[in-house]
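Worked problem 6 (solution included).
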Amino acid sequence: MSVVLFASLCAVLLLEGVECQHNIKSHLMQKFRRVFEGIAKAGQSTDLNDFYTELFITERVSGEVNKEHEVRQIETRKPAEEETPIKCEDIFKPLPGQDQPSRTIMTTGVAGIGKTVLTNKFTLDWAAGKANHDIHFTLPFTFRDLNLLKEKEFSLLELIHHFFIQTKGICRYDLFQVVFILDGLDECRLPLDFQNNPIWTDVTKSTSVDVLLTNLIRGYLLPSARIWITARPAAANQIPAECVGMVTEVRGFNDPQKEEYFRKRFREETLCE
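Solution. The predicted structure is:
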C-alpha cells in the first residue's frame, strides 16, 4: 500500500471515528447522567452532577494488595494528611515525578465507598467534554454484565460492538486513545486465568471473553489502550501485580468533602447543621 493511499485510509477511519465518538458520547450521557441513590423510588432519580462530591482517592504502592479484612485495612492505613489526593479526572495523568501515566490502574475500596459512582462521573465528564480531551473513547464495562457472556466467544471488536452499538463503524482502535473501564472485579465469575490463557493479539479473532480480558489487561491485546479496574480489596489480587501500573484507593470523604456532600444532598440549610 502506498503512503498516499494509507494516509487517505487513515483519514477516512478518523472521520468515521469522529461520528462514532459523537454517538457514543450522547449514549453515555443519557446512561450516566441520572442515577438512583439509596433506595430508589419508582420513576425517581437524581442528576449525578447535582450530588457528586469529589472523593478522597490516594495512590498505593503498585501491586500492593492488602489481603487483610477490609475493616482491619481501615484501621491500619496512613492518615489522610500524609497522602496525596488524586482527582477523578486526573486518574490517567502522570503523578508528580512521573514521565508517563500508568496504562493499567486498579482502584480499590470497601463496599459502598463510591467506586462505581467515581467511574460513572469520569465517563459522564468525558462524554460531556468537560475533561480528558485526549481520550477518544471511554468504554465502561461491568463484570456483572461480562459474566453473562462467560460461555460465548467474541473478538474484541465484537465485544465492544455488543455493548456499544454506536462504535459499529470503528475497526481500528489502535488509531485512537481508548479507555476500558472494568467495574466490580469482586463480582467477576470468569476464571481470569492469566497463567494458562493463550496470548491473544488479534482484535478481529474470536475467543472466550476470559481470554480477551486477560490479554487486554496484560497489554497483548490493544496495547495502546488504558485500563481502569475497580474492586473491593479482597478481590484485587485476581489481577497479577505485574499487570497493574498503579494502585489507588477510594478513602471516602474527608471532612470538607463530607460537608459539601451533605449540603448538596439536603438543600435546606437547617438539615445540614
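Discussion: DSSP finds nine helices and ten strands in the chain.
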